[in-house]
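Project standup — Tuesday

K.O.: blocked on the structure for the chain from last sprint. Re-posting the sequence here as requested.
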Amino acid sequence: MKNNKKGGKKILSKIFMGLIMIFFYSPIIYTIVFSFNDSKSLTKWKGFSLYWYEKMFQNEDMLNSIFYTIVIALLATLISTIIGTIAAIGLSKSNKFIKLFVERVNDLPIMNPEIVTAIGLLMFFSVLGINKGFTSMLLAHIMFCTPYVMLSVTPKLRSLDPNLADACMDLGATPWQALIKVIVPQIMPGIISGALIAFTMSFDDFIISYFVTGNGINNISIMVYTMSKRVNPSINALSTVIIFMITIVLVLINVIPIIIEKSKKGE
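H.V.: unblocked you, prediction finished:
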């Protein structure tokens, strides 16, 4: 009798999980399928076609939005990863008060509603006289990506022996050699994870980007928002491209740490 009850609960839990998966992923599947629709209709299927992808790649504004999205995401990821890693290493050697203070400040951009951060950045750039455009968007992305890098790197630093750097220098290594050849390789999984998270956050950001952009500089999220105001099936093609890119990054986030761990065990 107990086995029957357990079996019934397992079946119900699987059905429940299946319904949740359908609820979350059916809009994504719907978007991908209708990006290949041969009609302007967003609800009726008329046949398979790549017409809307052709229209997308012929649209200069869409191509520019893809270009700016990738360039800003790559630059923001690179710069925020360097800043976040250096900051995390510096904090690991700081006194308790400074460490706690900076960690609480670092949490603010993550816990703050994005609309508040966006308005704050808009006012900040206005006070400094920075024209809204590529530079303002890049600086904003670096600002909100850096805390995620620090959050990813800090646990790896805490897991290290605090005397590791001193031991390296006792054996003749310079502080720079101890950092580059010993500390950084040990925390590399955290650095890579932080960089991938930063890239994802920058790539699909809309609210902050919308407030700090200008001079015709749009990323994909802003372009999709603009296109959603009128019926344009090219939005499905552009959204599918976004889904495809984000999926690749998410796969890398999960696969790269596993590969690194396996390579270390192989050594």
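K.O.: great, moving the ticket to review. The chain has a mean pLDDT of 82. The chain has eleven helices and no strands.
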